[in-house]
Amino acid sequence: MIRIVTLSLVLLLIFEGCGKKNRKVHQLTRKGQAHYSIRIKTFSQRDSAEHYAEDFSKTLQRDIYITPSDTSEKSARYAVEIGEFSSSFSAGSYAYKLLKKNVIKNFSLVYNNLPVHDDFANVFFVGSYKNKASVFYYDLKTSSVHLFWSNPKQLVVELSVSKDGKTAFFLSASEFGRETIFPYINNLKLYRINMAEMKVEKLCDLGNGLQLYSNWISPDLFRVIFNAFDKRKNTFVVQSKLSYNSNGKLLSNEKVVYDIEKEKYPVPSLLNTEYPSDNNKLNITFSTADDHNVLSLIDSLRNKKVIYSTHQNLNTAEWWGKGKYFIFSTYDFSRTNIQKRHNPETSKLFIYSIEDKKLIYQWQGEGYKNFILRGDLLIFDDGFDSNSKIMIFNLKDNKMIDTIAMQGGCGIRNISTFLY
Prior knowledge:
The protein is mostly beta strands. It has helices at 7-16, 46-57, 88-100, 335-338; strands at residues 2-4, 25-27, 36-43, 63-68, 78-85, 108-111, 114-115, 122-129, 132-139, 144-149, 155-161, 167-173, 175-179, 182-194, 199-209, 211-218, 221-229, 236-244, 250-259, 274-276, 283-289, 292-298, 304-310, 313-320, 325-331, 347-353, 358-365, 371-374, 377-382, 389-394, 399-404, 410-411. The chain contains four helices and 32 strands.
């Protein structure tokens, strides 16, 4: 389909397109319409843009636009764009597929005829720079790695990127480790990454403590849980829960005091017990039975089927492919397992097919198998310390397409290490 800005071209295509199946042409007024498009080429002459758009439209099932370019250069007065998309992420995802299939050679994203940041293209991760855990990003378009943030006095402890790729939070510390039975983390700081501007802003100093946990509760709610000894009495542990929206605004700061001589050490549960599919027709439940952790599939008729049972703990899980696949990872950091230092098999990653009713892919070994989904890409980490790396698996083509490996190691949330 082609939508053309000029009325004359619209009328021309209407007459030329009479009798052609599935060919609709509409006059488009850009003013006042807000949507994302993929700009694939610019021309100095309108007729050149029209001919290119006509030829290109034969290979796609998407709308194509010819718009006045926002540049003052005479050689780029008219732009050919693919649209419409609801977000920069979805536009970038579609453009990436075309790029890897050599349908297009280059592109940029625009919103209402203005250039915008590509929320899909950059995959942020933690890697080592000058022996300090730092923030990097991997450019999917060029398959290249770039240093984003590093501090000679701080190391990144945890990185969390939103699913839409617009925002990320990370926590850094001067040092962390374990003394006797307790872990420690010193000079903890919280930062936010504004992806559109590729800038970092510090949100707060959390100080010294024992442990931290961070995750996205919802698309617009990020939470940090930080345990620290009470300064007045070292048998008391103060647990702080800080909640932020995606813009970095502090929404709440709750504190609870635990007496660990009388109560258990506070370890929060960050896992969901239910994972409904996008259309809510299916649900995956997580439960414990007979010392096993069990994942069960429940269909719309409430029929229940166990899809996996394990002694390992559930790490993270997500649906993919419009409810056709369920992806999850598990881990086991028990002392018995960790003693197998040369081959501990501390984690596993699975892909379960709803249609085939079975596990169709499995990876196992060291590390945590933290993962993210980026369009059709499953991106996960593997291994510990300097041997840790990030794997990129194309779910549509069923093949591994790249590996990110660097001196000192790397990971999705952090550089996985032993604290025992």
